[in-house]
Automatic annotation (TrEMBL):
Region annotation Disordered: where it falls in the sequence: 66-141
Compositional bias segments (type: Basic and acidic residues): 68-141
Taxonomic lineage: Bacteria, Pseudomonadati, Pseudomonadota, Gammaproteobacteria, Moraxellales
UniProt-recorded name of the protein: Lipoprotein
Superkingdom, taxonomy of origin: Bacteria
Alphabetized UniProt keyword annotations: Signal
Amino acid sequence: MSRKLLLVSCATVFLAVGCVAFPEDGHYNGRYDHRYDRDYDRNYDYRRMTERQRWEYEQRQKRLQQQRQREAQWDRQKRELERKRAEQSRQQLQRERERRAELNRKRQQVERKQQEQRKKRVEEQRKRMEEYRKRQRDRRD
């Protein structure tokens, strides 16, 4: 058992020393190799920058969408106001037409009555004249 333990320990030591002594680039000078973490800050900054740009793009898109919605809302309100104004104008014109038609009808009715009264007066005057002439004739005879 101790032999196996000793053999495993030696193998571990040789493998560990071999990995340290023989890195991927083929040499080892004992110093810290910065190539493994040289992109860490750059990747962090790049990631941060791209996230910031994405966030700014999303904010810009949200603002544009909100602006479009506001403009659409204003356009709807404007069309609604114009429709109401047109409806009020149409109703006012209709009332004015009805009022004028009523006035014309009343005026024609008054004129008709006046004409009938004139006819009656003329007829009465004609009858009176006939009666007067008849009396005159009767007196002469």
